[in-house]
Fold each of these.
Amino acid sequence: MERRTFLRAGIAVPGAVLLSGAVGALEPVVARARVTGSLASGLRVPWGIAFLPSGRALVSERDTGRVLEVRPRGGFRVVGQVPGVVSTVAQGGENGLLGLALHPDFARTRWVYAYLSTASDNRVVRMRYDDGQLGAPEVVLPDIARSLHHNGGGLAFGPGGLLYVSTGDAEHPHRAQDRQSLSGKVLRVTDTGAVPAGNPFGNPVWSYGHRNVEGLAFDGHGRLWATEFGNHLHDELNRIVRGGNYGWPRVEGRDGRGGYRDPFVTWRPDECSPSGIAIARGHAWVGALHGESLWAVKLDAPHRRRKVRHFSHRLGRIRGVHRAPDGALWITTSDRDGRARRRRGDDHVYRVVL
């Protein structure tokens, strides 16, 4: 690993860590990022973010079940608390109110989608957001297995207005290879939870063989990318394809020609533990929990797969990463989940300009 100051048009950009490939003294920066400030503080493990047409954002708190509306210039208010949310933070768990997404036609439907843990399952629900208040939940996709750990939780609407959902193996690794189980998968359903035409196995499963996927994001080419927590060897960034088998628990990381989908890039678990993901400026921006940093991964040539590390151990455990309408990133910290040293004002929603 090599720590350098990179140059772009004569501007020094300190504090990044380059992990792949040698660079010349005048090679352009592949990614740069700067924190402009904290938009909200004193939160309890903010997890999902969904941007409203106004530029404000709805933010979920994992451990309280609250939904906040955060202003782009800072400050927030509580707009609802989702009923039935069960958090196991006291037991070191990862359950609670997780990902958020807006219906593609939100201006007309007013639907907000959420992934949450109840006493019996993980599920996707939708709620109307009218007059600044969140309505009662309507179940879209129930019966996703829950556990203390490996609950997934990502949501993203993709081409054709279809909803993609990331799940974990619920600490039963064999379920990831069972194409009839919803565990350890990326799922694809309609906005009402029905199975759409074109799903490879006639059920909600879109891809399988995953250990625990939290982050989902589409790029400008319609490609779906996902972050995945490894076990002891390799965390992963994967490009998700229809019917793809990503190997867990039979393989962790690359298997070459072994028949499974290889990850786009990998990290050691102490470097990353990847959660949220956003696509911007030709990079996947990945939040690292254990690695306490924001990673930028180049998606296309030149310098495809190059990884650059930002804010190493400066902001805390970074979980959510979301692209705002103005092109900035909003990132969230998870220092109040019992796994890190608390910092002043935790937890935060930070704004990052690229």
Amino acid sequence: MVRAAVQAPALAATDWPTLGLTFAAYAAFGLATWFHADIPWWALAPVGGALVCLHGSLQHEAVHGFPLRARRANSLLVGLPLSLWMPYGVYRTTHLVHHRDQDLTLPGIDPESYYVDPARLRSLPRWHRALLEASNTLLGRLLLGPWIATAATFAQGARDLRAGKKDAILDWSFYAIGVGILWIWVVEICGMNPLVYILCFAYPGTSLTLLRSFAEHRAADETSARTAIVEAGWFFGLLYLFNSYHVVHHNEPSLPWYRRPRRYRERRDAYLAANGDYVFDSYATIVRRYLLRRKEPVAHPLAG
């Protein structure tokens, strides 16, 4: 990976741009849910999905220490499970493991890998293998991915709770409290049908997040060649808080999101040389190439 030539400056106690954006996102979410009955579903779904996705991007920034330096304060600030599918504490733990770049994409080690160990894949029922194959196309990832991710997260959570793991008990307890708070606001106060929330907020929000992660990593011998760059426009750039410059983020996880575009422009040639030109010029290109065609095999090509 390309490493910073100079030591990054010390982080301020409060990152005001990220804090301001967090409050703005919650305000927009509050307005969208409050006025949901006045918005047609075909407009509510993209707006609700974008807000839930943006909240997920803010959770990602919180994992890396933004906008507040205090871990618990960040957890309280962004911990509401707007997407419903994963407790923030679980995400924080697994995402930090994902940042061990030497283990990127390795099934069973990298918790964010979509690859499966070849031996395990051969042992799965045919329907399960077919489901995994379908979800390795972009259309399958967007349509099936939210349900697959939710089922896998809840299944692992159930195993951890049965095993009496203290962190899991804490994470899922806070998740339950968060869902309760969300229910009070969305259902009891705003009068929204829970199914409408799932279909117009949680589901499209998770799908948009999976669009971002679809091409973020690939199996490669060289660690530096495993992480992608998507030169996204401003809409997806802001929606994903410029995490589309994923090499930049893995290289400097503590770099604030609004500094990633400039860092990329300054060192573009070096990043592309390091990651083997694993770059897309837009998310539209990813859609055109992989909507109905799988990008990678399900079985990890370098494992087993």
